[in-house]
Design brief:
The protein is mainly β. The chain has two helices and seven strands, in the order ααβββββββ. It has two domains: 30 residues; 86 residues, Immunoglobulin-like (Sandwich). A hairpin with a 2-residue loop joins β6 and β7.
Length: 149
């Protein structure tokens, strides 16, 4: 269910269509499986942790395409178990994360049922803010020579 109608804003804005599409995606992503955390580990480093209990490395795929990080999982259960109670979810999933400009994936590791994806923001030197010195004109003092009469 979509709760916001952005169509009136399209009449008075130019170039914001991508942002409105992202807001639509957030509104439509009501699924809560699998749970995940996004944490800032330092000024320019981040970690996404996805709870993937029951999935092996071969069942998971981490991919970056056009600034979107996708984490997908699909278990290959060839021998269907006969469960008396099935409480651990093992259904297929796909989680997508929109990455900001200059954010790169540095690595991923599976540890104790958690998939950790490490990210780093690397801003090029030409994009970093730099301080501009202000050159003021030098003040000249006028020395007068008064002649004594």
């Amino acid at each position: 269910m979509r709760s916001f109608d952005f169509s009136p804003l399209f009449r008075s804005t130019v170039g914001f269509d991508r942002m409105f599409d992202m807001l639509d995606q957030v509104a439509d992503s009501s699924q809560g499986y699998p749970p995940y955390n996004i944490e800032r580990t330092a000024d320019n480093t981040y970690r996404i942790t996805v709870a993937v209990a029951g999935f092996a490395e071969k069942d998971l795929n981490v991919e970056v395409r056009d600034g979107v990080l996708s984490v997908t999982g699909k278990r290959e259960d060839s021998d269907k178990q006969s469960y008396l109670y099935h409480g651990i979810a093992g259904r297929a999933f796909e989680r997508r994360f929109q990455l900001a400009e200059h954010v790169e994936v540095k690595g991923a590791k599976l540890e104790n049922g958690l998939l950790h994806v490490d990210l780093e923001r690397q801003v090029p030197e030409e994009k970093k803010p730099r301080r501009i010195t202000i050159n003021a004109p030098e003040l000249k003092t006028i020395e007068g020579s008064a002649k004594a009469a």
